[in-house]
Each structure stands twice: as structure tokens, then as C-alpha cells.
Write a structure and sequence with these properties.
34% of the residues are buried. This protein is an alpha+beta fold and 769 residues long. A hairpin with a 5-residue loop joins strand 9 and strand 10. The protein is built from 22 helices and 13 strands. Helix 12 runs antiparallel to helix 13 (436-465).
């Protein structure tokens, strides 16, 4: 069986059966496979019926594409309406792309399978000629897909990095001070700066100025610049695109980090960042930071509970059973703990800001959003960017702002509807005490139904808003989903804490609501542990079912016919395609922030909440790491300056936590019985609440003034960075000024030879593995 290796540099010709032993041919099973990216194309079921001798590929079939449809397909897929949009020296080395544009200008319909073949080959032409990539393609084991693996050579990456101002880190030898050596500055790549730049070796010993994650980012960006793979997938011209796992590097992460046997908070953040990129590394940094800060809070919570049991083993008393002036010790300990919690929240947020600034400085990701590439799903008119003179998609801000206003109105309507339903269920339960079970079932059903409806609705609305970058899209989706989840997650607790006591008091019913609230929190956390197990089990089950279905299909094909293209072994890159696409950090952040809300909003009712949160986070680290290493495709290693919108949400939650805990202490908890004869009314309680709340916020403001958002250490590092860059890199002021215009340079293309594309053959003509 022949293999095809299409090489942009043409160092390796077309390989046939007679020379499969060529040592230069990369075996797909090789653990040191250098290919970084892969596009998957489906083989049409009726590809053998294609008769290209009949009217040049045109046939009478129901599945046809008209020239108008083909022209639109080409324009959106390759961002060029006419073949003349390419340079003549590029066109003369193309075969399949000009044929497609010629058909689009004709009058006859074309069979879809023929278009699919030519689109695949045209993609390879563009990858070779415009990007300078090397490709390698082979069939899937069950002969229904073609995998096109992509490799960007070092020279290709250097040209692109210099043209776009991609930042690289200076080498350690340039820093004589050991204290600053682990925080080296980043500068835009330039050939003349190579002697100052750090180099990285891969497992095969090949040196590069770019980390593996940087290479993937640039490879993906170059593909996106010329081919809209997302649009092609939506139109059925391709199946999917993905970054390929590096089995050598991944095996190290699996052993150190991705094992469920490791019940600890240890994380090799440097390796995670180098493999998965700064965005995912930032999530795990925040998770680890939050977990470490929960340790003292969990210890104090345990001390609070133990102390209350020792001092008052009978537990909390309702007001009717307390003497006038008697102190309710369990609630007193809880109140003291809640004041400590309020101060903890203020300090936590500020020190995370410091940590985030330090990470962004050491990773060189400050202001990285300015160079973020557009999303594959982003739609807009094609135009020449007036700044850098590059072709881009443009969508008016005014139209997006109008859509965002409509989306916010629709989201608010659904959230308001949920609140109304919850209130109605609450009043129904109180009006008909015998129907509490029915009310509980209805409440549970509405939570699940609205979770499904609103989850899909939020994604649809955010897609409709058409955000340009992944960061903008995620920020918009975060606000919609969190607004709903806040109401859906906390409505029962707020009702139980602040409404139910006064309804029961009017009906002369007396309960220990703080204990009931604490029990509810404990149930929520135990449910969370169970949901994490389900979260891990779903990909396992789906992967097992998919593999079983494929094995069954292969066995059936072998029984029907003697097909030599069917093979038993699955190559590693093919196994990558069978993994689930990584869904991003949004759900993980949402889960943790909701948990943070339980800790910060209602901890005074259940001081063991931080302990349960800490145990859950240790479990969460292992679950998320295991999913990334074993069950997910490798995501594009995106850069990140901080945790984004979640930082603002956490700050707002910490402020609400102060208000909620103080309200629980004053209005719900029975610390001292002073109101037996009704002499202390609600107005007096409200006055106490306002006074304590002001004191706590004054303390919080004091902390904000004392704690600098950027630590002195980070300030020194940044000043040192400026000094090193001026001393060793930039020789004069004119060179510094020229740096500002580097992004405007259009990248030069690889020199193309006449025989560059001689081995790109549609699968209707040549058998490929």
C-alpha cells in the first residue's frame, strides 16, 4: 500500500510500495513524530463511482453543487472570490484550486464528491505554497477518513514570527543576576536578535527558538489566515481540525500530573504551560492558589465547629428556649468566623491580583489579547485591514452592540421567569404544607429544564453576536451563563436564609434555620463529589462505545470483502481524532466560582464549607488533569494575561459575601436573646447590620490601600526587563521605533519549485494509506 508524504521542500518524493523502507519516511507510529497539526477529511461513500471522464467530472446526480454555490463556498473557505486574488507566481504552481474557481465561473453543476476531492487537494496546495508547510496524509484504519498531518519547519516559523512580532524569551546567559534569571523578558522575534534568544530542544534533540506551544499557535494562525477550516467543516468539506498530542511530552505529564492516584495539590505548572499554553495553565494556577488559601480557612472552620461543640455540646437553641440575655455560643463562634471570612475574601482577591501580574510578567503575556487571532466561526465581510494591509474579516461594532442588547434582554427575561417560578413554588409550599414533596419535585424539574434551555439559549445568543476572538466570545458567554447560574444555584439558600424565617414566624413556627442552611450546604457539596465522578465517567463511556462501534464496523467490512486497506492497528495521530474535543475552561471556572460563592456567601451557617471546598478542589485538580491528559484532544495553546471576566466576578462575590454573612448573623442567627418581649424590632436590627457592615468595608478598603495590586517584586522585575532590553538588544532609538511597525510587515512566502505539488493526488486517482 502506498503512502504519500507531500513535502513543501520536496526533499522526499512520492513513496510507493517498492520503496517503503526509505529511512526518511516518517512512520505514523513513531513516538517522535514531528507533525503538529491535523485536518481530517471524510471519504464520500460513493467516491468510487466518480467518473471524471464523463464531462470533466460533471455527472447527473441529485447531490450537485451549482457554480454560484461553489463560488460562495470557495470565497468563504479560502477568503478569495477569484483566482486572480492570488499572485501569478503562486497560481502557476497550483492545479486543483484554479480548477475549482474555473468551475465556479462556468454554468454546469458539479458533483459534490468531486468538489470534496478537489477541496482537500486545494487545501494542501495552499498549505504548501502560501504557508510553506510539509504535509503527510494517510487513510484511517476503517477506510472512511483521510488524515492530513501538518508540520511547520523552523524557517517557516521564523519568517512568520518576524512578520507578526511574535514574542520570544531572552536566553538565561544574558542575565548575570541569579535573582532575576527565572523571570527573563520577552521581545518580538527578529533574525538579528537570535544571539540573545533562548532555544528549546525537543525530545529528538532539535533546537528551536519557539516552544512547542508557540509552534502550534503560529501554525494554527497561519492556517486560519488562508483556510477557514471551521466553515469547511460546517459545509461538509472537512470533518475537523486539531492539534496533535506529543506522546513523549504527554507521557511525562500523565505520570506527574494526570494520574488519579495522586491525591495532592502538586502541579508542574511550567510543563503544563509549555504543553497546553498559558490559558489552561492560568486556570490551574488559579485553582491551586485558591486551594492553598482555603487551607487556613478550613483549619479555622474546623476549630470553630470543635469549639462550639466543646462549649455547648447540646447545639444551638431556638429563641423560645433561651433566657433573656443568654448567649447562643454555636452561633457566636460562627459569627466570629464569618468576620474572619470577610477579611479573608478581601485579602484573597488582592493577593491573586498580585499572583496574576507575576505570572503574566514571567510568561510574557501582558497585552496578549491585542494579537489574538480571530475565531474560525467569526463571520464578516472580507476587507483589507487599513493598519497592516492584510486580508481580514470585518464586522461592524454597532451591529454587534445592538445584538448584545437584545441578547441581554432575552437573558434577563429568562432569569426573571426563573425567579417568578421559584417564588410561586415557595408560596405554594407554604400555603399547602402537605404538598411539600410535590413542590420539591416541581422545583427540581424546573431547575433541570431551565438549565438545559438556558444553556443552549446562551450559546445560541453568543454565537449570534458574532464575536471576533475567543476571549471576547467567552467573556460574553460567561456573563450570560453566570447570571443564570447565580439565580439557579443560590435561590433556595437565599429563600431559606432570609424569607422562610419570617414566614414561619408569622405562622408561629420556630426552627434553627442556620442548622438547616448548613445541612443544605453539606448536601450540595456531597452532590458535587458525585457529579465529578459522573463528569469523569461520561467521556470514558462515550470513548468505549465509539471504539466498540468502530471495531464492529471493521469486522463487518472484512466479512463482506477482502479489503487490503482495512488494518487492525490504530496510529497515534488517528487515535487523537477519536478523543473528545476539549471544551475549554468555562465550565471548570463556572463550577469553581459557584463553589466560591457557597464558601463566601453562606459559610457562617456551616463553617466546614471551606474544608469540603478544599477536598473538592484537590479532587478537581486530578479530574481536570486526567481529562486533559487521557480523554481530550490537545487544544490550541492559547495565551492569557489573566483569568479574564472571572476575576471581576470573584471580586463582586467577595463583596456580596460580606453583606450576606452579616445579614445571616444579624437577621437569621440567634446570637443573644434580646427580643423576647418584642422590644427590639427589625429597624434596630437593620441599624446593627449597617454599622457592622460599614466597619467591615472600612477594613476592606484599608486592606486595598495597604496591598499594592502589583507587588514590589514584580515592579523590580519589569524595571529589570526594560534595562536588559535597552542594554543588550536595542542599540539605538531608531531600532526601538521600528519595533512598533513590525506587525505591519506582510510575511514573505517560501520559494516554490515547479515540482512542489506533483504528489498531491485526489484519492479517486491514487490509493493512499
Amino acid at each position: 500500500m502506498p503512502r504519500i508524504r507531500c513535502n513543501a521542500n520536496l526533499s522526499i518524493p512520492l513513496v510507493t510500495d517498492s520503496d517503503q523502507e526509505d529511512q526518511d519516511l516518517i512512520d505514523p507510529r513513531d513516538i517522535h513524530d514531528p507533525y503538529q497539526y491535523m485536518i481530517v477529511f471524510e471519504i464520500p461513500e460513493n467516491d468510487d463511482d466518480t467518473d471524471e471522464d464523463d464531462n470533466d467530472g460533471k455527472t447527473k446526480s441529485d447531490d450537485m453543487i451549482s457554480p454560484t454555490e461553489l463560488g460562495s463556498l470557495l470565497g468563504e473557505s479560502f477568503m478569495c472570490d477569484h483566482i486572480s486574488d492570488y499572485k501569478p507566481e503562486q497560481i502557476k504552481h497550483m492545479e486543483y484550486l484554479p480548477a475549482l474557481y474555473k468551475w465556479a465561473e462556468g454554468t454546469d453543476d458539479i458533483k459534490r464528491t468531486v468538489i470534496q476531492e478537489h477541496m482537500r487537494c486545494a487545501c494542501i496546495e495552499l498549505l504548501h505554497i502560501l504557508c510553506g508547510f510539509e504535509t503527510y496524509q494517510f487513510r484511517s484504519r476503517d477506510n472512511d477518513e483521510i488524515f492530513v498531518k501538518i508540520y511547520a519547519h523552523e524557517e517557516t516559523l521564523r519568517l512568520y514570527a518576524e512578520a507578526t512580532g511574535f514574542k520570544c524569551q531572552l536566553k538565561p546567559e544574558i542575565e548575570p543576576n541569579k535573582d532575576f534569571r527565572q523571570y527573563l523578558p520577552f521581545i518580538p522575534y527578529k533574525a538579528s536578535y537570535q544571539s540573545f534568544l533562548q532555544t528549546y530542544k525537543n525530545e529528538a534533540g532539535v533546537e528551536s527558538y519557539f516552544r512547542a506551544s508557540d509552534q502550534l499557535v503560529m501554525t494554527s494562525a497561519m492556517i486560519t489566515e488562508h483556510i477557514d477550516v471551521g466553515f469547511m467543516c460546517n459545509q461538509g468539506m472537512a470533518k475537523e481540525a486539531m492539534c496533535l498530542h506529543n506522546e513523549f511530552a504527554l507521557s511525562s505529564l500523565k505520570a506527574k500530573w494526570g494520574s488519579l492516584k495522586l491525591f495532592s495539590m502538586f502541579q508542574p505548572i511550567a510543563e503544563v504551560r509549555n504543553y497546553y499554553g498559558e490559558k489552561i495553565a492560568m486556570y490551574f494556577c488559579w485553582l491551586g492558589f485558591y486551594s492553598r488559601w482555603l487551607i487556613p480557612l478550613a483549619f479555622m472552620g474546623v476549630v470553630t465547629v470543635v469549639a462550639s461543640w466543646i462549649v455547648f455540646p447540646e447545639g444551638s437553641k431556638p429563641p423560645s428556649k433561651m433566657d433573656v440575655g443568654e448567649i447562643n455560643w454555636p452561633q457566636t463562634f460562627n459569627a466570629a468566623f464569618s468576620l474572619v471570612l470577610a477579611c479573608w475574601a478581601a485579602v484573597f482577591c488582592e493577593f491573586w491580583n498580585r499572583e496574576g501580574e507575576k505570572l503574566a510578567t514571567s510568561w510574557g503575556t501582558k497585552e496578549c489579547k491585542e494579537i489574538e487571532p480571530p475565531r474560525p466561526e467569526f463571520k464578516g465581510e472580507r476587507r483589507i485591514n487599513p493598519i497592516n494591509e492584510r486580508m481580514e474579516r470585518y464586522y461592524p461594532r454597532g451591529e454587534r452592540s445592538l445584538k448584545q442588547m437584545i441578547s441581554f434582554s432575552a437573558s434577563s427575561l429568562v432569569v426573571g421567569l426563573v425567579i417568578i417560578i421559584v417564588v410561586e413554588i415557595f408560596f405554594y409550599r407554604n400555603a399547602y404544607p402537605s404538598q411539600k414533596v410535590v413542590a420539591g419535585i416541581v422545583n427540581a424539574i424546573q431547575i433541570q429544564v431551565f438549565n438545559i434551555i438556558y444553556g443552549k439559549m446562551a450559546v445560541k445568543l453568543t454565537d449570534w453576536e458574532n464575536h471576533r476572538t475567543a476571549s471576547e466570545y467567552e467573556d460574553a458567554l460567561i456573563l450570560k451563563i453566570f447570571l443564570f447560574q447565580f439565580v439557579n444555584s443560590y435561590n433556595t439558600l437565599f429563600v431559606l436564609a432570609f424569607i422562610q424565617p419570617y414566614i414561619d414566624k408569622a405562622n408561629q413556627i420556630e426552627e434553627d434555620y442556620m442548622s438547616i442552611l448548613g445541612l443544605q450546604l453539606a448536601i450540595i457539596f456531597f452532590t458535587g463529589f458525585a457529579m465529578n465522578a459522573v463528569e469523569l465517567g461520561k467521556p470514558f463511556i462515550k470513548s468505549w462505545l465509539d471504539k466498540r462501534a468502530e471495531e464492529k464496523g471493521i469486522a463487518e467490512q472484512k466479512k463482506k470483502e477482502d479489503n487490503n486497506l482495512i488494518r487492525e492497528e490504530m496510529f497515534p495521530s488517528e487515535a487523537n481524532a477519536k478523543l473528545e474535543p476539549y471544551e475549554g475552561t468555562l465550565e471548570d471556572y463556572l463550577e469553581l466560582v459557584i463553589q466560591f460563592g457557597f464558601v463566601i456567601l453562606f459559610c457562617s451557617a456551616f463553617p466546614l464549607t471551606p474544608l469540603f471546598a478544599l477536598l473538592n478542589n484537590i479532587y478537581e485538580i486530578r479530574i481536570d488533569a486526567f481529562k486533559l491528559c487521557w480523554l481530550s484532544q490537545r487544544p490550541i495553546p492559547l495565551r492569557a494575561e489573566d483569568i479574564g471576566t472571572w476575576s471581576g466576578i470573584v471580586k463582586v462575590m467577595s463583596i456580596l459575601g460580606v453583606v450576606t454573612n452579616l445579614a445571616l448573623i444579624v437577621f437569621t442567627a440567634n446570637i443573644v436573646n434580646l427580643d423576647v418581649n418584642g422590644s427590639v424590632g427589625y429597624l434596630y436590627k437593620f441599624g446593627i447590620f449597617v454599622a457592622i457592615e460599614h466597619i467591615v468595608f472600612i477594613v476592606k478598603l484599608g486592606v486595598l490601600n495597604v496591598v499594592d495590586p502589583i507587588s514590589p517584586e514584580v515592579q523590580d522585575i519589569r524595571r529589570r526587563h526594560d534595562f536588559l532590553i535597552k542594554k543588550y538588544v536595542y542599540k539605538n532609538a531608531s531600532e526601538i521605533e521600528s519595533l512598533e511597525t513590525q506587525r505591519d510587515i506582510i510575511p514573505p512566502r517560501h520559494k516554490v519549485h515547479d515540482h512542489d505539488l506533483e504528489d498531491i493526488v485526489p484519492f479517486g486517482k491514487l490509493m493512499i494509506k
